[in-house]
Specification:
Chain lengths: 238, 250
Amino acid sequence: MSQSVRLDIAAKRHPDPAGGDRLALRDLQLDIAAQEMVCLFGPSGCGKTTLMTIVAGLDSDFEGTVDFDGPRPAIGVVFQNPRLLPWMTVAQNLALVLTEDVDARVDAVLAATGLAAHRDHYPGQLSGGLARRVALARAMVVEPALLLLDEPFASLDQKGADELRRELQTVLQARPTTALFVTHDLREAALLADRVVFLSAAPGTVVTEVRLQGERAARFDEGWLQPALVRLRAAQPA
Amino acid sequence: MTGRSSTLIYRLLSLAALIAAWEIAGQLADSRLLPPLSTVVQVIAAESAAGRMLSETAITLARVLASFTLAMVIGAALGLLLGRSPRLDGLLDSWVLLLLNLPALVVIVLAYVWFGQIEAAAIGAVAINKIPTVVVMVREGARALDAELEDMAASFRLSRWRTLRHVILPQLYPYLMGAARSGLALVWKIVLVVELLGRPNGVGFQISIAFQHFDVAMILAYALTFIIVVQVVEFGLLRPLDRRLHRWRQ
């Protein structure tokens, strides 16, 4: 998918319980090239999730622009919690976000993500890792031009998270997609990103960025990973 | 399994005890004012043979279903709106409170006085008695809706109808089922009053005739029949529906 995104957020304010408002994002410019995977890294509360909700179109109350170079594309979102509907089976959860060609697409994505055996299970019957895999499948089933991932593998153990990171690598290999990935884990950023963008503490703005090269599938190799982590730590703002 | 079957035995035993006590008390009293169960059953048989039992029960049941449906639909829609909009809730809350505390009899009498003793007035009056309790229960559920799921629906560009049908309503099912359960029991009792006061047919009308003749056996015959009908609706319709909606919890 050749979707590029240009973000230019002059200011985003949250109403304050005290009655005033709090600046969450300030002067944030970010261009994401077509098929690029950008990881947003920043301290908690720096407005990463706020930025995601703006790009997803859930929040239009900000100063600035989100430019897709055309109409809003199909966007697939993976949230921090899987946010599956517990009263629907895995297949139904995927079918819900589709309007055409439903059965064929659901079957294809379930097969591609190794979920075919779980198609008739309810989310309550799934492990945390499987539920997140379903959330990823739901984002892919809409055939997104842009993928938004907000700490999608947080709260999993490293083994489970790595399994899903590999899964995401495979999915993107098969179908290169522009993606914005929020994380607070440098190793995760190293494994997945074409570019890691460091944000400041609130109000969030871009401080610096690091480009990473290397086949994603080969990045689990310590020989690649360790030097990359050293580079990222060196660039990380204090 | 043993737990369930032993509960069933207790239920049957208790029902048998009730039937026996009724029969014995009736036989001992030997009075028109306290007929034994066997006499009541004979009256049910006679009324059924005359065709009246079926037609009167069907008429009452139709009124129950009409006012029940009306109350559930209007009450659920209003409850959802009030639960999601604090402003609207502030505006209408005192109205709901007023209706909630308005005696059923007052609503019925006023409906007949203002609109005449017509079918629409009867069914409307019953519905108005039930609507505020549905509003209050569904409003409770609407306040507890999961905003994260609605954000998910919005980010995947789900239509309003899909969001309502698949994301919002399922969260309200427990509240709707609660309202339906208590609603059915309340509505059929009020329908009898409405029939007694201003309809020329139905179970309530038959009871009013029997009342004029102090015919207790007739009163109990219609009451017993309708209790059974309502139980059939509860076990044949509401419980299977409830089980279906809760399949995912198992």
